[in-house]
Amino acid sequence: MHHSALLNVMIAAARKAARSLKRDFGEVENLQVSLKGPANFVSAADRKAEETLYAELTKARPGYGFLGEEGGIREGDDKTHRWIVDPLDGTTNFLHGIPQFAISVGLEREGVIVAGLVYNPITEELFIAEKGKGAFLNDHRIRVAGRKNLADAVIACGLPHRGRGDLALGLRETGAMQDQVAGLRRFGAAALDLAYVAAGRFDGYWERDLSPWDLAAGIILVREAGGFVSDCDGADAMLDKGSVAAGNETIRKEIVRVLKSA
Q: Which of 79, 30, 72, 36 is nearest to 54 (CA)?
């Protein structure tokens, strides 16, 4: 498949960063006997991957701004463009040797996400999208699922845990949703959850307490796959509020309705 120059830049950067992540993932199992070893090792892997992404993306597009999970905001001369990057989404999965994690790269142009990439280096699944050009998994076109009833739907979610999120609200929301859906799933990597919605694997997804780098690439993947994305209140402020609800038009609305009832 022929990719645009922009997507080629993003894919090349992600694949280069993925090489070190794959090597590091292979080492994590050997560190599980140590309490401190794995966490420190994964933090270093995270930082190394982000620096690779920063170097590759900046080399190809000098002047673009950069917002990364590890390095924060790095201003560029071009104030209209900004990369939004998570070098390792699903850090806890990575730390425990669970192969459900991804590199996530989004490009924001004048406040609008115009391109996105989510890449799981272990499964070698590469999800890409560019504004107005559709969404693809390993060069095959993907679409959101067509189910209209929550009773038939499998919905992904995030769950609050110690030190993060509103546990009481999370319990109310999951309780309300469990009563209405065919299944709930919590996979632990927001970018991949959104990519799976785009590919029709999940019918919908919601989560709170997220950061822009968790969401940027996934938002355009879902939209270019024919889906709809909002914050958990139904508005278009995902990156500001740090919450997301996604699915086809009907399922997304139903998710927001259930969340409001909780």
A: 72
